[in-house]
Each structure stands twice: as structure tokens, then as C-alpha cells.
Amino acid sequence: MNIGDKAPEVLGVNEKGEEIRLSNYKGKKLVLYFYPKDSTSGCTAQACNLRDNYDALRRAGYEVVGVSIDSEKSHQKFIEKNSLPFPLIADTDKKLVDQFGVWGEKSLYGRKYMGTFRTTFIINEEGIVERIIGPKEVKPKNHAAQIL
Fold this sequence. Notes:
about 150 residues; alpha/beta; Glutaredoxin; five-stranded mixed sheet
């Protein structure tokens, strides 16, 4: 997915098993942020920074949706534990991470594995990707400021 591309209509299923569609956010800008794993330090810092600045983001016309390959149950626990006010898509079949090109080989301490690259897509009111904050740019503890 690149700047100028139209985002897919069906984004996936949230922590409640409800389908999340792009058209649910018509007339708003959508912050679709992909993160590696629920309840890890960086992902928790990022989610809590978005939570703490959620009102400011909404006042600026943004809605927030998180995506990881964790299960609905894992997302429910993550939301409850951190009082997250926005939905999380359970992309367990890796369809969305593939569509957006954020799934690939990562390396940690010399060990290679497949995972999600922390990436945020800003989708405009017409459903077009207008900005991408890539893996090397995302600052989990200050992510809302990067969006605003």
C-alpha cells in the first residue's frame, strides 16, 4: 500500500468479532496503525500514547484503529488492561498485514523471524492513503504528536 492508493473496504474483524469497514469512517481521517504484539513494552507504550491523546486526535478529525495478528481474546485483554478507547483488528489470517505490505522478515539478536513492521497509515476522508509513518520513523511514546 502506497501513498495515493485506495484502502480496502473490509479491514477485518475487531476484538468483539465485528467487521470493521472503511465506510464506517467516511468523512473522517483514519489512523490505521499496525503493531507487532499485544502487551509488549513498545506496543503498550504506543497504544497508551494514542489513548492519552485520543480526544485531541478526534478533535482533529481522526479515528484510530489498531491492527496486529493477535487473536480477538488477546485484544480484549489488551484493551481492558490499558483502557483503550479504540478498536483493535485481529488480523489472525494475516490478510491485512499482507495487503498493506507490513509483514516480513525481521531480525532480533541475529535471529530471523517473520513479523509485523510497526507502521501507521493515515487514510483520508475518501479512503485514500495520504501519509505513511514507516517502521524507522514511528516513535511509540510520542506517536500521537507525530500524527497531529
